[in-house]
Amino acid sequence: MSKILKTFRARLAFWIAMSALGILLATGFAVFVSVRTALQEKQDETLLEITRTELESVGGKEIGDPLEIGINDESILVWNEATGKIVLERGLVSLRSAKRTVRKRLFTRLYRHGHTYRALYYPYEDNGVRNIALCIESMAPMQSTLRSIVFRMLLIGMLGAGATCLLAWKLAVRLTQPLHEIARQTASIHMADLSLRLPQLTEDEELVDVTEGINGMLARLESLFEGQAQFIADAAHELRSPLANLRTTAEVALRRQDPKTHQRALQITVAEVERLTRLTESLLTLSLADAGALVQERVAVDIAQVITESAEAIRARAEEAGVKIELQTEPLSIRGDQLRLQQVFDNLLDNAVRYSLSGGSVRIRIERKGDRADIYIEDEGPGISEANLPHMFERLWRADTARARVTGGFGLGLSIVKAIVEAHGGIVSVRSTVGKGTAVQIRFPLADLTTPH
């Protein structure tokens, strides 16, 4: 059975057929019980009428000899309740052994000589004398009628069952055809072309949801693979420049035997290796973010202390560049990885100082807003155009098309910031005005210090 029902279509047809057959069986049983009850009631009415007719014919006389009423179909026995004396006995079936005392009219069954009879015990009074009449009628005609009805119902039921199974299969095929078509068209979509989308094959709400869900998944996959391909291309581009510099420097050093040239080559090599190391570490950080393994621990961290440490670490370079650091904090705790949080504010403050003009300032402010900590980092740099703002957190994206700045960098800093903030359940956003500066806002949920971790 499990092999037969291994497909959804077969199981759907099976359960439709079983449900229909169950309803058919229940309906047939109800009809049979209804017909049997109606025939029984009709026989009881007939039996009561026969009993009353026979009692009227007695007319107060005592009859002791049995007389034939019918051919083994009906018999009647009447006796005095007090004395047990027979008042009337007719028919071919002896009922004397079935005498019993009853207080009210009673319909029941009697079995005599392998036959089943419908029996009526009928107590009554005649001239102040209480008698009991027992009248029986054979149930063979009714049973024959019921057997005929059952046979016809079984025949019709078998035909109905066959038709039900056939219709159930056709209905299952029709209902599952859109699913088969969706599966076929989905299988035809390959990684080489994720731009294809499934058409709406039906107006059924459930299948429309399935189609839209698959198309949404395809759109996300297309975006993901396009971003991955672009990321790989950009990473290769970033790696190519320092590798080319290393090769050129090594070739020059090999051609010349001048110690100064060798020393200069080693200095360039160290600088390029450091650049490659920073790029590799950044790529590794983003890889951990994609794998959901960026945050290694979650402990209570005073975010004000983390920001203060980052600000103090960069203050000397800021003063050298003529940039003032303004810090306004209050102790607020969040749960997270302190090293990763330090990385966020090191990157943001590095960018803020790097792009601020001499004589400007970088303002850092922490505020409590309900159950969250809001952090603002504002600079007075050249600002970012509205067209470039949506791309600020894209990996390896930089506003200049030449992909090089005097200030350096790989275009990964803000991507790392966004990944770390979101891994801590936070939100980061940027607003900027060209010629006035840029403001970064971060929102972290505050730590519930009553919950053990």
Describe the model:
By secondary structure, the chain is of the alpha+beta class. It folds into three domains: 8-147, 2-Layer Sandwich (Beta-Lactamase), CATH 3.30.450; 205-289, Signal transduction histidine kinase, dimerisation/phosphotransfer (DHp) domain (Helix Hairpins), CATH 1.10.287.130; 294-445, Histidine kinase-like ATPase, C-terminal domain (Heat Shock Protein 90). Helix content is 51%, strand content 19%. It has seven helices and twelve strands. It has helices at residues 8-58, 140-187, 205-255, 259-290, 303-320, 338-355, 413-423; strands at 74-80, 86-90, 106-112, 115-126, 129-138, 299-302, 324-328, 333-336, 361-369, 372-378, 427-433, 437-445. The strands form three sheets. A five-stranded antiparallel beta sheet has the order 2-1-5-4-3. Helix 3 (205-255) packs antiparallel against helix 4 (259-290), helix 5 packs parallel to helix 6 (338-355) and helix 6 packs antiparallel against helix 7 (413-423). Mean pLDDT is 82; it is low at 60-72 and 401-407.
